[in-house]
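Appendix C reproduces, verbatim, an entry submitted by the partner laboratory led by Prof. M.T., so that reviewers can inspect both the input and the predicted structure.
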Amino acid sequence: MGDQERYTIERVAEDGTPTAPPGVKNKMVKQCGVLVRDFIPITVREWHRPNEKGQLYVSDEGKERLWRKLMVNFTLPAPEVDSDEEDPDEAEKIARKIMEQKVKDWALKKMAELFKNWKKRLNKLFVKKNKTPDFDKGYEKIKDYWEEFVAYKKSEEALEKSAKNAANAALKMYHHTMGPGGYAGSMPKWEKLEADLLANGITPEPLKWIERARNWFYGHGGTLDAEGKCIYNRRHKDNPLLPIQEIRKAVKDVEEGRFIPDREDDELTRALGNKEHDGRLRGVPGSKPKTIAIPEHRKKFPDRSHQRRKEREAMEARAAADRLRNIEEELKLQKEQIAVLSQQGTSGQSQRHMVEAACDGTGGPSNRKSSVASTELQDGNDDAVAPLRRYPMDDITESTPCEMHVKVFNLTVKVAVGYVVPIGPNPTYHFSPVPNGYAVVAVDEVMKDYEELKLQHPAGEDGEVLELGEAKKATILWPKEFIVLPNWQPRPSTPHQSPAQQSSSPPHQSPAQPSPPPRQPSPPPRQPFPPTARTMRGKRSPKRKRSPLPTVPHKNLPIRPYDRTVAENAAEVAAYNKAFFAPKKPEQKPVYDAKTKKWRKSFLEQPSHISMNLPSDYGRELTKLARAQSEQNKGRSAKSGKQIAQLGQQKNQSVPPLIVCSDADKDFRDAMDKDLELLDPRAMAAAKELGVTVSQAKEQATALGMSLGQLLGYESAPMLEMARKYVQGEPMVSNEELARLSTHMRNLHNWYLVHTSKKDAKDWFPVDVRVEHFFKRYVIQVQLTELFQLFQKRALDKSILSCYCL
């Protein structure tokens, strides 16, 4: 299954089984099988951690990686949360964790079962038949582990364990006949069989039984005759007969009151004569445990897992602590808002509105209803619309720090910090008009636990930012009523009524006349904002009362020396000198704890940066070569200045070229030298002894690339050094070459000498390739002769190149 394939799970059963849409369960099971076959070696013996040490098992980290890989292709549904919860978001988060844990447990159980079946199938098809799978066709991922797997399956430990499991399996008396589909795939056929009998007026006998007994009877091969009675199937001739009579007797005992069923101890358990398994319940689809198969008796089943109980209690405690902390923070914020508003010098009516807004916790409309007397009509028109409410951010002219809040019941909670951007009279956001009641804010920091908060208006040019945590260092749209400007200082405003409103308001209203419908109360602003020009047009603001100037000298100022008497100054100086020259207490020796000692020790043992940043042998070798090349080129002086043409190179020749005799008779002299070489007495004597002519010897010497004297032996011929051959136990290089080797190569040569000096030393050594090197584990065998070729810089083998690449 590719990473691009996605399947959405719409419904999850109580035990974590995906039940909708149809087919998603089978796809998930198949993907579980693919993952365990691809990522778990077949040499792993146990799925859970065994009691005995030294055995391979699947660790918790490995199971977590399998789960994450599985969920790449599947998406869980949103959990159902009761709308009456105090904190729906927190309840949804807890419900999601619980559902995810259930699906994870179910998926890991399926993986364990499929991994066991995978090894059983390999053992049955290949190991027991002494065959080897074709590693090029579907079995390439088990090639490196096959020998170890076969060795274990043929060991005494595995054979003894297999015999024990076979003996336990032989104790099972009844075997189902439903196939791989189980109860879920067979139940529709049983229901159709009973429906056909009911349509003919025949009542099937299993209708009187409990559902668990009915499913078990059909699942183990039982059927009905033409009269609806329970009968045996053909396969029961050679197998134990089903306990039909025992089930009938148990049902009759329950009807007559001689037997009272209790949880799993019901008619089927009584008929079979043995207790139910602790892990699962017979006759129930999906092999569910008792706590899930019998939900009405769930409280009677104690949870025997101390770890699950502790995890559940810890999760509930954390959830309760988070809710309590959020409530405390909200109450603290509410008190601070009330304190700030109460200290502001506002008039009675505006101050009352602000306190109501703080008590309301949102800055929006309060829950108090407006009376009819407080309703005002504009210009005598019943359809007149009140002016839009203004907020502090409507009057800012520059970016202002702000806090972003959300409403939680009747409180507000700070979820982010940033700054609000002035947007002008016609605000736009990414070339689109800004909705009424919203402002453009930039997010600098998001509070903890609010990163997944969904935005009401997706941010970004294409609307790709959907959560608050993704909007860091970006601009978003936020409701104005939930934007708080911490440093905003409002100016006091005075209530004002325009002359038009005074003239339009009637002096008296008849009781018979129907009163106009009360308008919705204008929500008081969360924070007061400066009065506009319309509100200040009718009346001037009152003068500010100035506080009196402080008296000099002020009582809080320190007393200066010239304000004291001579005796007071002398006493002050004497006290200062006494304190200054008083014996000092010895400083206490610092006491270091174990953590500080460990840190200081690690600091002292930390290698220097020079040693940590030393270049590699390869880098040092390149540096040496570059330095040598630089010194070699340093002695060469580049030609500079004007170059003078030599004889015969001038562009305009004033005289004909000078003819030199040595150039004219060069060919003649070469021929003479050749003839003189043939007439050499030493050549003639040596050729005579060999029985050839001097001309024939000259031709042979030319063909061999030698001189005539070297061929005939009266001149010394150059001798080439013989190539070194590999001899096990002897050095691979000479002493001069060993001194020029790098550090790692010299260490490798020393290891070779030690290795070959041992008794029964092998002529090869293994190189272990790990999973992080090449995605799988295997071993490379390197011959010592190939190591010799590496030191001699000759042709390298594939194994040496593989080690270098990995």
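The chain has a mean pLDDT of 77. Additional entries are available on request from the coordinating office.
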